[in-house]
Design a protein that fits this description.
Blueprint: H1 15-18, H2 25-44, H3 51-62, E1 66-67, H4 68-75, H5 79-91, E2 95-99, E3 107-111, H6 113-122, H7 125-133, H8 137-154
Antiparallel strand pairs: 1-3, 2-3
């Protein structure tokens, strides 16, 4: 078994508590993620988006004309997952894929006018999420920073 050492390691938890489901960070993150995805579903339905499609839109609203490879890195998705997702979004008229003129191996993703128009509708979503989570903006920002820090710490282990 591989165990990653840390300078922050402390005395191991008592065996009876260490393997309790509710004491697992992984389960807290997993179950919170499931609840968050369920929360987003009815918010995204009027826009015709799934949660992964919404994440793609968020990246494109920040940086239209993103390369597929950059999009995959940003969302932590491999091309086998991302390509069918982008094809469905292209079929829905939200984006277009275009090969780079200087290097045909690179594929760029551009929003269509319909894709850009969804941004106005999506602007209401963060407030709905904060209300549902019963968190202030300060609390949401703090939680987000904690999760980003955790992800960054775990990334070398991947």
């Amino acid at each position: 078994m591989v165990c990653y050492k840390s300078s922050m390691a402390s005395k191991p938890p008592h065996a009876n508590n260490a393997l309790k489901l509710d004491n697992q960070l992984c389960f807290a993150l997993y179950s919170a993620s499931l609840q968050m995805t369920k929360l987003y579903a009815p918010l995204l339905k009027p826009m015709g988006l799934t949660y992964p499609q919404y994440l793609v839109m968020l990246v494109l609203w920040e940086n239209d004309g993103t390369m597929v490879s950059q999009l995959g890195e940003r969302l932590f998705l491999d091309s086998g997952t991302l390509t069918p997702l982008l094809k469905r979004m292209e079929s829905s008229g939200l984006l277009r894929r275009e090969r780079a003129r200087d290097d045909e191996r690179r594929v760029l993703i551009y929003l269509t006018p319909a894709g850009r128009a969804l941004k106005k509708q999506a602007a209401k979503i963060p407030a709905c999420v904060m209300a549902a989570a019963q968190c202030s903006l300060t609390e949401v920002n703090a939680l987000t920073q904690e999760m980003l820090t955790l992800r960054q710490r775990l990334n070398p282990l991947l």
